[in-house]
Every structure is written in C-alpha cells, then in structure tokens.
Amino acid sequence: MKNKICISVDEETLAKIDENILNQKFRNRSHAFEYALTKLFEEED
What we know:
By secondary structure, this protein is mainly α.
C-alpha cells in the first residue's frame, strides 16, 4: 500500500523532474521521487 505525502522542492528541481517525465524516464513525479529515494537507500547499504 502506498501513502500520500506532501513535500516541497525548489522550482529548478521540479523543472528537472518534469523534463525527465516529458522524456519518459519517469511516469510521473511520484515515480521520480520513489526512484531517487530507492537509489539513495541502495547507496547507504
């Protein structure tokens, strides 16, 4: 089950995320954040 959260990001970061969505790297903003967090957690292990 997924939970909804609210986050704040600066405009530059959001623009980069949206560009990657347009380029079809990510399905949506949630997918982008989930991908980034997964990569961060993998680096920690």
